[in-house]
Amino acid sequence: MGVDSFFQGTLNFKGTVHIDGKFEGEIITDGTLVVDKIGEVTAEITAGTVICKGKIRGTVHASKRIEIHSQSELVGNII
Predict the structure, then answer these.
(1) Could you give phi then psi for residue 75, rounded to 5 degrees?
(2) Helix and strand totals (H; E) in the chain
């Protein structure tokens, strides 16, 4: 999802998705979610791997791992 994009709803995918824009809703995947430096996500996230370089607000369920980079922001619960 590009810099100027905004998406609201449910996102299901396989593989890897990079979010540079804004997303609100629910994300479900066994793959990898990357929220890049200018990305903003407000969602219930269920994923294999979550890499946060931007902003995430909500509950994150990760079955494999979570990376939270030094200049990122994660507000919510991590499971």
Answers:
(1) -115, 115
(2) 0, 8
